[in-house]
Amino acid sequence: MKKDAKIAIVGGGIAGASAALYLSELGLDITLFEKESSLVSGPPMCHLHAGGNLYREIDDAQCVALLKQSIELLRFYPQAVDFRPTVIATPLEDPQAPTELLARLEMLKEEYTKLITQDEANAVLKTPQEYYKLYSKEDLLALKERPSVKKPKELDEWMIVAAKNMELDKLQYPVVMVQEYGLNMFRISASASLALAKLPNAKILTNSSVTNVICDESQFNIEYEHEQQTHSETFDYLINAAGFRTGEIDDMLSLKRKRLVEFKASYVVQWEREDVLWPEIIFHGQRGTPKGMAQFTPYPGGHFQLHGMTEDITLFENGLVESCEESSHPKLDAIFLQKINRGWHSSIIEERTALAVEHLTQFMPNFKTAKIASKPLYGAQQIPGYDKTLRASEVSFECDRYARCEIVKASSILTMADAITKELIKLGYLDEKALGSRDFEFITQLNPQEITSKAKSICEQREYPLAMAEVNCPVS
Ligand SMILES: Cc1cc2nc3c(=O)[nH]c(=O)nc-3n(C[C@H](O)[C@H](O)[C@H](O)COP(=O)(O)OP(=O)(O)OC[C@H]3O[C@@H](n4cnc5c(N)ncnc54)[C@H](O)[C@@H]3O)c2cc1C
């Protein structure tokens, strides 16, 4: 048994920061290396995919995995979730009928019921009967006539503002409302940083870039740069959570792995609108075509985050690249790395944000008055293997002391942490009883005001509206 094992985690995105939190709460000696100045600063996340209903192309098994994993994430970071539902509308011109979604929604409702039977603390997406609701055109026409509800509670109340603003004649029916909530990355960053700071066995090295890793028979020697000085330290176990740069660490160790890397962006606007809370609204569409899905995500203060799955908005020509025989690290064009490392030119921000607003305006004409509120939220992410539709993915193990975090959606972090825990038990670093542990002291006891204040300072440092540090519908 080696209970004093030293574990290194490279990368403090949601995967690495959450692994650090999970494993240090289990008592392990953790060192986290993050090259940026704060945690969870990579590609954004705004939607908790509790059922994968935004992805018509994925199979039922992935939807069930996303449902279960989202419930786990919600229980781990409850203060980072915006508890408002999502409207899923299908435009008339879309070739897929919304009725094709119904069997899957019903299956997800049953799976949710089973999860609650296994553990009643899983009942975090309202009751199974309220997991989703269908609306006919007549229902929406009737809701449109009702007065808006400032702080909606029931699904119908949430739907009123959507019914008043969507072009109802341009939609197929039924329109769906589902309990898929918002995720606030600034609050995740704040929660993880505050909780890790309280754990004496977690050493968080920000502004520390890992430049080389050498593996000998029993240890990893990690070289890193901090304040223009090179340092090195040895560890018993390595967790590679470097996000789209996971392949760079693989390359340092001469390990072969197939993966994709994709650069994407979303846009932040402010809109003078009726002062009521909004649900998220999705207008389905064929990804990569000019009719790609449009996504409208509400934040406090009239701010909205927009995605449009077309090459002019969220996706980019040549934005998806794959690894090759010589390197496990897919190489993005310099233009994307420049955006990640140095930011965007203001003219491109204006152009793409205007296109995002226009894309939404097709279905919500009043939205045309929305204005740019900040730079976009963007970044590159990895997808293990070459299936670009993969959404539920967690971690892979190359040898008995090397884990590679390969999440595609934020929700997969607890399944990822469980799989790593299993390996650490095999090595004798943890007791059997650690497996599946959900008993977390530091993360669940954080004070909401402390999180908001930290999240505001993160927004300020990253130059996003301070209002985005809060959620409209906090955990009650
Ligand atoms: C536009 C867009 C929208 C998205 N929306 C959603 C959403 O709504 N919901 C959802 O669940 N997911 C969403 N995703 C996916 C989500 O952002 C990713 O799954 C998630 O951020 C991956 O987390 P990660 O920790 O694996 O990687 P990252 O967040 O990329 O973290 C990796 C970290 O490693 C650090 N690092 C890398 N190399 C080194 C090194 N050598 N030394 C030290 N540090 C290093 C990096 O600085 C970075 O902080 C979206 C992605 C994009 C691009």
List the helices and strands and how they pair.
Layout: E1 6-10, H1 14-25, E2 29-33, H2 60-76, E3 81-82, E4 86-91, H3 102-118, E5 132-135, H4 137-144, H5 155-165, E6 171-178, E7 182-183, H6 185-197, E8 202-205, E9 208-215, E10 220-226, E11 229-235, E12 237-240, H7 246-252, E13 259-270, E14 280-283, E15 294-299, E16 303-308, E17 320-322, H8 334-342, H9 346-361, E18 371-372, E19 377-384, E20 395-399, E21 402-405, H10 413-426, H11 448-462
Parallel strand pairs: 1-2, 1-12, 2-8, 4-14, 12-21
Antiparallel strand pairs: 3-7, 4-6, 5-6, 9-10, 10-11, 13-16, 13-17, 13-18, 13-19, 14-15, 15-16, 20-21
Helix pairs in contact: 1-6, 1-10, 2-3, 4-5, 6-11
The chain binds flavin-adenine dinucleotide.
Please report the total strand number as a whole number: 21
By CATH, the topology of the largest domain is D-Amino Acid Oxidase, Chain A, domain 2
Sheet of most strands: 10 strands, mixed
CATH architecture label name of the largest domain:
2-Layer Sandwich
* Residue-averaged pLDDT: 96
Rg over CA atoms, rounded to whole Å, is 22 Å
- Helicity level: 25-40%
Low-confidence regions? none
